[in-house]
Design goal:
Layout (H helix, E strand, L loop, with lengths): L1 H7 L2 H8 L15 H10 L1 H17 L3 H22 L6 H17 L6 H22 L6 H23 L5 H25 L1
Length: about 200
């Protein structure tokens, strides 16, 4: 455990210096269709880290979490998106998004074993923030349906990437790598958090 924290001690000051507000949520709206939706999650490091973390956490918790968590996230994210489209006010969106990387990353670093229902609630709660941010941008899209399809596919691929990383835990060295990536995700979340506050 100490070795993991020592590896990332140098990264925190660097992340604090280069931190910016969450990148996937400019507040300027979106345009285009499928490709715009597909590329949007990949352009925001805050979204990438959270999606990958969900996949890694699912792999760490084992079956059925390995597929339940990556299904829960987009389903609840859609609900958050509807709230955003409706324009219902919701405070601390960027803070919630940043905290998703911090908390999920720490769960991975610490290799916490938790009941599936608890993990699903945590993942779902963070999904609302991610969905809301994108839903609030959605009404300005030229083709909201095509955009949404591209967005969901891209998000699913990020979950699969996380599951692939999480599957490294089958080997002793892989556990260290997966937990180290969790540490990077948590530190990135601290950077996002400083930009959001």
């Amino acid at each position: 455990m100490n070795a993991i924290f020592k590896c990332f001690r140098w990264a925190l000051p660097l992340l604090l210096v280069i931190s910016t507000p969450a990148l996937a949520h400019t507040g300027e709206g979106i345009t285009g269709g499928f490709m715009s939706g597909f590329l949007h999650p990949l352009a925001g490091l805050d979204h990438v880290t959270a999606m990958v973390a969900v996949g890694i956490l699912g792999a760490f918790l084992g079956r059925p979490a390995i597929w339940v968590l990556p299904v829960v996230f987009p389903l609840v994210m859609a609900f958050g998106g509807v709230i955003g489209v409706m324009g219902i006010p919701m405070p601390y969106i960027e803070t919630g998004i940043a905290l998703s990387s911090v908390v999920l990353g720490l769960f991975i670093v610490l290799a916490l074993k938790m009941p599936l229902w608890f993990a699903a609630i945590i993942v779902g709660a963070f999904a609302i923030f991610h969905g809301y941010a994108h839903g609030a941008e959605l009404p300005t899209a030229a083709n909201p349906l095509a955009y949404s399809v591209g967005f969901v596919i891209s998000t699913g691929l990020l979950h699969i990437a996380g599951i692939g990383i999480g599957e490294l835990i089958r080997w002793p060295a892989g556990v260290i790598i997966a937990r180290a990536i969790g540490g990077i995700i948590a530190l990135a979340g601290v950077g996002f958090l400083t930009g959001a506050l």
